[in-house]
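Re: the request from the purification team.
They wanted to know what the chain is likely to look like in 3D before they choose a buffer screen. I agreed to run a prediction and write the result into the notebook, where they can find it.
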Amino acid sequence: MLKRKVSAIWVLILAVITAAACIFATVIYIRYSRQTPNKARELGQFRFLKAESDSAGVSFEVINVREVGSDVVLDLRWVNNSGNPIAYGEAYELYRLKDGKWEIIDTKLFFPDICYCINSGSVGRISYTIPGHIDMTEGERYRLQTEFRFQYGDEYFEPLKNRLEFEIVKATKYVPKEAYTYRSEHDFAVLYLDPDNNTFSISLSAISSYWAYGKYTEKSGHIICKAADNTGNTYTFRREKDSLVFVAGRSSEILQWSSSDRKATERVPDGDLCKDFLAER
């Protein structure tokens, strides 16, 4: 009699363990099967095909696609369900599929050494800017690729890849209306103006991925650019023939960067940022 009771108890225990295992497997399948969605999603001129990762539980989710001047901004969400914290940055690589092989595209962007960390079960939002000078052809396939690392205490493991593939549904032809560049021994900046839409975008430093964008007005020979982001910064320039000169007294404070140590050193004085800017027409 005792043996029968013991056997019944073990059967019950095994049944509970089996049920728990089935529930766990179902949750894992539902959670991680979302890692590489097969259903394409169209936003603007993009058709997003699939997201892939070197690790189960880490993926991209597309939030929005924005046209900022001549640039395209991808608003993405990092999703971490891996069971461990991950760290990632603002850097990315862009590839084009050509003859069955992925070829890297030179975006001419420099990225700051900024690290973002998110715990397992959390998400992190980030925006990646694809510059307007990159010619993306209708019908071609592209891949945005980033890196992340697993974090264990103060240590980070080898980098892994997170990828997002998409194709262009309808290409927007990039025609620069007014493009100005400034170079010095320390840094360079780029300013784009679109007089047809009164929009601008500007990169203030080669070692920063930040691009200010928004609307501009032109009064009495001065171009006043108002950033549409949360900084609300204003950048004012004075026209001098085919060049632009930065007017510090009528602009927000801009820090100069040292390319040697990637640190802000001092504020840009009047006339320096766009002195001898050359118009590329």
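For the purification team: The radius of gyration is 25 Å.
Please add any questions underneath this entry.
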